[in-house]
Amino acid sequence: MSAAADWRAALAVGRSGRAAGWRRTSAEQGPPRGAQRQGGRSRRALWVLAAVALVRTADAAEPPDEGDLSYRAHIDSPLRFKCLYGYAADKTGDHAAAIRIFEDCIARWNDVYSMIWLAQILEAGVGVPRDQTRAARLMERGAQVDNDAHASLARYHWGVALAEGRGVPRDPVQARRWLRRAAAEGVADAAEFLDHLDRNTPLNLTKENP
Length: 210
Description:
By secondary structure, the chain is mainly α. The protein contains 9 helices and no strands. It has helices at residues 3-16, 35-60, 83-91, 95-109, 112-124, 132-143, 151-164, 172-184, 188-200. Mean pLDDT is 74; it is low at 1-39, 52-68 and 203-210.
């Protein structure tokens, strides 16, 4: 099976599988209005970005046959191509391989795509103990990267974490800064969440101190 076909199959599994993600709000706290819709769109955006990236890479050069067709075979690969397989491994239930792939991609290339998906795994507690603090720090790290196509989405997630106090103390002022930047870079969910904050946050918490 070609890399492109393998990834399309993984996407099909992902759409019908676990829906946990960074923007999913716990039942105890209750989701803000529109939050579940935002999370779904963000995950779909990542699926599309991943598929496009992998198909382009596959068109340029097929990865070498590593013998073992499981995703664990890609854990120690020196090819950045493997970061996309972390998503497929997670969506097909091999969470341990996904985590190791994402962690290696982050260590090798400071890969924001891997930061986002690893944060989702940590936030949901799938295959690892739930760790919202580490998840938030991964989003903060991704938000500060400038030369990565996925950084704008990380900035959106980091702004939401600051707004809701997920893994970090609530900071509405800083939340708005990151959300405005993400919105300016084309993340529609960031603009929508800013509108949600404006309608639901007391005025004295929306202004920066002089």
